[in-house]
Specification:
The protein is of the alpha+beta class. Helix content is 28%, strand content 23%. The longest helix has 29 residues, at 217-245. It is globular, with a radius of gyration of 24 Å.
């Protein structure tokens, strides 16, 4: 999606002039995402997306304690003091930033699933392009005009906006708090609601008519915009009605204005409890582009990044507490995402530069709490170009949410995601299947010799079936799929020629079903 189209589809394309608790709320008219949610088998389930704008530093968020000495070697000016890292249950090798106490407690209570090193092959380091990739679900070299959720709804609701809202779908399918409508919700034709700003539009909404427009291409566009404006007014009314039917019950929310994410999530909880049948909500928190002053010198557990992580921790905990008290917690799944992580090595400005993969959080009563994946590998002598390589493709997370939370069919899933991605064992489901560890034993994965010169052999033990072995460079760029084939049960190996590779650090990935293992490989001469 080019910048012009991104802005055109994001700004005011579907704003509803609704104010709840002093905050503006954007109603997404019956957009493709909504419709997919409305027709899903799990039609009472809700997804709350939390976008962390700017690129969150995953290494200082989910901290690899098992490599702490290497961490100090590559980012000593910003690394969190080891004795201040928050310990998590049943895991001595990984901890959380000290600003995330409430979130750590949620994790220990089984309400948080941490997915390590989420990204995509050949990452892009531009904020705009990387955000576009995450919102559309595209490959890094692919431009899509539709959002990942919008594509599903286009399959389920034809001829939008004609006939919407209606008796079966009276509520907006998605609601976003903020000033921009996310391209994630963009369908093939409609970018959803328009703002209602004058009395004439209101009376047209009441009478169900629009001003006549000339029979020209421009006139047809004007008629469409007026119809969307009418729908927005209707959705505004149901949003206001839902807000009037419920009140927040948690006392953990900070005072209004002190935590913008908390203020947004408070509205979401109120609307869900008020009976709004909207399936997807999006909220956001900015400030994660921490090139400078990420921490305070000499007190690295404080500073801008610490404040942001504390806001997330406090807000999500209060939101989850509210959902529990409102008796709707089992219906709601939350997910955080950011356009990229940060580089392994810190810079001289007490900050970090644009990177690749980073941890992603799912939270709620229906997640399989715990840590998925392994700690990222920290090289002892990283360069400014070294990155955290991907363990899990972000589209695997999307596929998991669509299939295991909303219950979409395999055909719908493939049409939405455009190609198949493995689902992950992070959401409670009644479906039977083989566990991640049963598929692929992470402890069995190794390569020899390492360091290597002309060749190395990668060895692993699995239950048999389709296995993919891929090679990445130190920046996270996919170099080659080494092998993608069906292996037999037991120990298998793949030998690769490394004589053409430059001296340096590389990563190889073994993927089978929902199980993925990433390890490093050093080429030396």
């Amino acid at each position: 999606m080019n910048r012009k189209d991104f802005l055109r589809k994001s700004i005011t394309g579907g704003l509803a002039p609704v104010v709840i608790n002093g905050m503006g709320v954007k109603a997404f008219a019956e957009n493709p995402l909504m419709q997919f949610l409305g027709k899903a088998t799990h039609d009472d389930r809700v997804l709350v997306l939390i976008q962390l704008n700017g690129g969150n530093d995953g290494i200082n968020t989910v901290i690899p304690l098992d490599q702490y000495s290497k961490l100090m070697a590559v980012r000593s000016n910003i690394a969190i003091a080891e004795n201040k890292v928050l310990k998590i249950t049943n895991n001595t090798s990984t901890g959380l930033h000290p600003g995330m106490t409430d979130f750590r407690n949620m994790y220990n209570d089984g309400l948080v699933s941490i997915i390590q090193s989420v990204g995509y092959p050949n990452p892009n380091y531009s904020h705009f392009r990387a955000t576009d990739i995450w919102l559309t679900g595209s490959d890094s070299d692919q431009n899509l005009e539709t959002g990942w959720m919008g594509r599903y709804l286009d399959q389920e609701y034809l001829d939008y906006p004609n006939g919407y809202p209606n008796a079966n779908f009276p509520d907006p399918p998605a609601v976003q708090i903020g000033y921009l409508i996310s391209p994630a919700f963009q369908g093939a034709d409609a970018s959803l609601a328009m703002s209602i700003t004058d009395p004439n539009s209101f009376y047209q909404f009441v009478s169900g008519t629009v001003d006549p427009a000339p029979n020209t291409p421009a006139g047809h566009e004007l008629t469409f915009l007026r119809l969307v404006a009418q729908q927005t007014q209707q959705y505004s009314a149901v949003i206001k009605a839902a807000a009037g039917k419920a009140a927040n019950l948690s006392t953990l929310y900070p005072t209004a204005g002190q935590n913008s994410l908390s203020d947004q999530l408070k509205i979401v909880a109120q609307l869900i409890a008020g009976g709004l049948k909207t399936k997807v909500y999006m909220v956001s928190l900015g400030g994660f582009d921490t090139h400078a002053q990420q921490v305070v010198s000499g007190a690295t557990d404080t500073g801008n990044h610490a404040k942001l992580l504390s806001q997330i921790s406090v807000a999500v905990n209060a939101f989850q507490d509210d959902l529990k008290k409102l008796n709707i917690a089992d219906r709601v799944l939350g997910m955080t995402f950011s356009e990229f992580g940060r580089r392994i090595i810190s810079n001289d400005s007490l900050g970090t530069d644009h990177g690749a993969a980073a941890p992603l959080f799912l939270f709620g009563t229906q997640v399989n709490g715990g840590l998925l994946g392994t700690n990222p590998i920290i090289p002892g002598s990283a360069t400014v170009n070294d990155n955290i390589p991907m363990q899990y493709d972000f589209r695997s997370v999307y596929s998991t949410v669509l299939k295991n939370w909303f219950g979409v069919t395999n055909v719908e899933l493939n049409n939405t995601m455009l190609k198949p991605y493995p689902t992950l064992n992070v959401i409670n489901t009644s479906a039977t299947g083989i566990s991640e560890r049963d598929l692929l034993n992470p402890e069995s994965v190794s390569n020899y010799p390492n360091p290597c010169n002309e060749y190395t052999t990668i060895q692993f033990n699995s239950s048999g079936g389709l296995v993919r072995v891929a090679l990445y460079d130190s920046t996270g760029k996919l170099l080659k799929v080494l092998k993608e084939a069906t292996f037999t049960d037991g120990t298998s190996s793949v030998t690769i020629n490394t004589s053409h590779l430059a001296i340096g650090l590389y990563y190889y990935q073994i993927l089978q079903g929902s199980a993925q293992v990433m390890k490093n490989m050093l080429v030396a001469r």
